[in-house]
Design goal:
The chain is mostly helical. It contains 14 helices and no strands.
Amino acid sequence: MIMSTKNSPKNFDSIKQSDESLQTTIKFSYASLAVFCGMMMIFVFDMMNRSDQISFIPLFFSILMGMAAADFFSGLLHWLFDTWGSSDSLFWGEYIVKSFREHHTRPHLILKRNWIESNGVPIMVVVSVHIVYTIFIEDRLIPISQSVHMSMFLFCFYFMMAVSNEIHKLCHYPKKCGYFVETLRFFKIIPSVADHKKHHTFPFDDNYCLATGWMNPILRKIEFWRRLEKLITMLTGMKPRQEDHLYYEVLVKKSARNKNEIRQRIKE
């Protein structure tokens, strides 16, 4: 079935987060940033105090696993916020869904956001995850949690998650971002512009992982997101990307709006 555009909004007001809710988010972001900095300093001091326990190969794999876990988790959150819910929802819609809907229709607006506006929500998520880990998981994994390599894993996981949206922002710069960033891209440490551009191609249902991009081809190969969507639909009756047709056919690039192309993509 071809998506109808007759109910599409004439402007962006219906999918733009209000200034009031944005300011509330920023206030919580600053508070979360203070907690996050404290967390990371504790990890650094802990690893420095136990530097004699560090072994190179386990340390190397701890770093890689932390970065890969952050990539997967960034993709999970990105998929969750992109795929489910309505912009009309009282809390979820105003504080979460609208910013993601707006980003798909006007992706380069992300370049106008300052650092805390871009990274505040991921930092809040990281702090929340650490609280859950500390309360419910750490005591059950005492031998592992006391390892200096576990501290390095968590440090890398939290750090890459916290800056995942800043990395995301780099994917939208129209020009090269300097030697350091281009080196990271060359060695596949962060996603390239071309990789992320695939996510902004209708129907916007792939390449969700933002921290490094390593997990995108793996999750695509095993059809992870489609299988997870089918499971959620089977259990709840909810349909993924149910609001997309209200916006994207009218507002995204002309090439993605081509009805023959959309028709072919939907058939596939």
